[in-house]
Amino acid sequence: MQHIFIVNPTAGKTDATKHIAKAVNQLFMNHEIEGTYRIEATQSPGHATSIAKKYAQSNQPVTLYACGGDGTLNEVLHGIIGYENVTLAHIPCGSGNDFIKAFGEPAKEDFNNIASLIKGKTVRIDVIQVNDHYSINVANVGLDATIAFNVVNYKKLPLINGKRAYQLSLATSFFTSTKHDIEVLVDGKKEKEDCFTFVVAANGKYYGGSYCVAPLSDMQDGLLDIILVPKISRIKILQFMNIYQKGEHLADKYSDMIHFKRAKKIELISSHPLKVCIDGEAVEYTNPVIQVLPSAIKFLVPAKYCNQDKLI
Asked: Which domains does the chain have, with CATH numbers?
């Protein structure tokens, strides 16, 4: 078995390459782990996809460790879709690390324990497909996508973490358009509204640094968790954001403002291209189709997070 550590040196506030290399070298030198290993540092945006695809196309059993944030994880994901010889793993050393939060409060520490992760268990999990892009966590359109488009610039500022960057972007995006003309079809059935503030399709639970958008999501159920927020006023948005962050927005008392559904596919039809945020990365599509790919990839987790082949 090959163990390939794909490290993004620009993820997070510091370069984690030396730390990861030291930990991995020690594990293999002490014969705690069988097999071979290699550390590959990315050099530019998209490079992680190229590295991942190279090993996927070898047809040899390999575990690829995406060492970075959600963007690095997404890039590696794009290189392995369709290859059964690959197991994906994540060492969350980026600034946001939203996907890993779906596993609970201590998950970041557990997944950063390289020895524990390598000796973990493999499970199959779903993936989201958005036209020709893929998402392991969340795809979203509307106000929150606009916020995510602007977060990138705020993350470049010193002393600004993922949560703070999201809050700053929210403050500025709030004064742009909060209403988006979109016809939404959920598993082929048209929603009665044609203007939305948020449209979210989730596989994981969190995005935006700390917002629990899909508290009930199950990345092994073969379904998307769909959160639809028809157009609401700016005052309601301010009232909404606190409960949204806490993951309390699916309560019955908010059902007049928030529509929650589970589905295999959602189609978004608009007269203009839509900004779609895919695991925090920005793309633009005309009439995007968002669908689930059930059990699409093998994913490595510390043993405590699964019971046989099921996540707990």
From this structure: 2-127+295-311 (3.40.50.10330), 138-294 (2.60.200.40)
- Judge contact between 88 and 298, C-beta under 8 A: yes
Alpha carbons 46 and 48: distance in angstroms, whole number: 5
- pLDDT over 80 at 127, yes or no: yes
pTM, two decimal places? 0.91
Termini Cα distance of the chain: 26
Q: Is 119 exposed, middle or buried (0-12, 13-18, 19+ CB in 10 A)?
A: middle
- 113 CB neighbour count, 10 Å cutoff: 15
**Cβ distance 282 to 275 under 8 Å?**
yes
Task: Give 55's Cβ-side CA count (13 Å radius).
Answer: 29
Tell me the percentage of the chain whose pLDDT exceeds 90.
Answer: 68
CA atoms of 275 and 290, how far apart (whole Å): 13
Nearest in space to 189 (alpha carbons), one of 78, 263, 84: 263
Phi first, then psi, for residue 48 (nearest 5°) are -60, -35
Cα separation, 168 vs 150, whole angstroms:
9
